[in-house]
Specification:
Number of strands: 2
Shape: globular
Strand order of the largest sheet: 1-2
Mean pLDDT: 80
Structural class: mainly alpha
Largest sheet: 2 strands, antiparallel
Number of helices: 11
Length: 295
């Protein structure tokens, strides 16, 4: 419980810190990184669906675009356009979960740095804003990954929180110029495709764009909810010893409540009612004394 509270307090402090500095000039460098990652999700989705990327461009003022040729199967364009909003939210949720779990943070930062460097040299002009943002942040991530596990964990949590916050902030685009957003672009594509096929859409282009935006928003909030659940709520299973992986997995999947799992554990039984072996039993008493100290 104490560890869970520490996570919540630290998470809230990171959110408050980022929101306080949201309009600060220096935050623009971090926002440009998030925009580059958004465009990178489009680019990677293009490649994975059989298309080709020509350029990734940042225009400043938190805007950018990807010049690409999408794949030839029917859903490739839909997947590529959807990858921007959904991809950055998913990336943020992964970073949050791994950061608070204190796992793989150094590896994540190193991999992200490699991806940024690769995309910068392959798809941006060397004198462009996109190239500078990608290469500078890649170097920063490499530095963090080599600075020890604790620093890497904090960096991953900060980046994950920023990605998730920006995915919510991005929703404001839908209330301004809808036609210029990814949802507007996808609605235009679907409308033209329907007309080409000789079919009329139920909604007009603007209504379709709002429907797409709402659908993406629901997906994003579902991803954010999962990230919150795994980062904070599921930390209740940390009171169980690390060796009882099966019991922890059942609690996390919702197959059994933490209270029932604790009852079986305290009585020296696994979830099938079989006695735990000697190693587990010795761990049990250690775990109980630890919990008493933390309360």
């Amino acid at each position: 419980m104490q560890k869970k509270n520490h996570k919540l307090i630290f998470g809230a402090a990171v959110v408050l810190f980022l929101l306080t500095l949201w309009d600060n000039t220096y935050m623009s460098y971090l926002k440009d990184l998030i925009v580059f990652l958004h465009e990178s999700c489009h680019a990677l989705a293009t490649i994975l669906t059989g298309g080709s990327v020509e350029a990734i461009v940042l225009q400043g003022h938190e805007s950018g675009f990807v010049q690409a040729r999408t794949g030839f199967f029917s859903l490739s364009f839909v997947i590529v356009v959807s990858a921007g909003y959904i991809g950055t939210t998913f990336l943020g949720s992964v970073f949050l979960q791994q950061g608070f779990a204190r796992k793989n943070s150094q590896l994540l930062l190193c991999l992200l740095g490699l991806v940024l460097i690769s995309l910068a040299f392959l798809y941006t002009e060397k004198s462009s804003l996109a190239f500078r943002i990608a290469t500078i942040w890649a170097c920063i991530f490499f530095l963090f990954s080599l600075s020890g596990k604790e620093i890497a964990n904090v960096a991953v949590i900060f980046l994950g929180t920023m990605l998730c916050l920006y995915s919510i902030y991005d929703l404001a685009d839908f209330t301004r110029n809808m036609q210029a957003t990814d949802a507007g672009i996808l609605a235009d594509y679907i409308t033209k495709l329907s007309l080409f096929a000789g079919k009329a859409t139920v909604l007009d282009k603007k209504q379709l764009a709002y429907a797409i935006a709402i659908f993406w928003t629901l997906i994003n909030f579902r991803i954010l909810y999962a990230a919150f659940t795994h980062s904070f709520v599921d930390s209740r299973t940390e009171s169980l010893p690390a060796g009882l992986d099966e019991m922890k997995r059942n609690v996390e999947k919702g197959n059994v409540t933490p209270e029932i799992a604790e009852w079986f554990f305290k009585n020296g039984l696994d979830l099938d009612g079989k006695p735990l072996n000697g190693d587990y039993m010795s761990t049990k008493f250690h775990g109980q004394s630890q919990r008493k100290e933390n309360i």
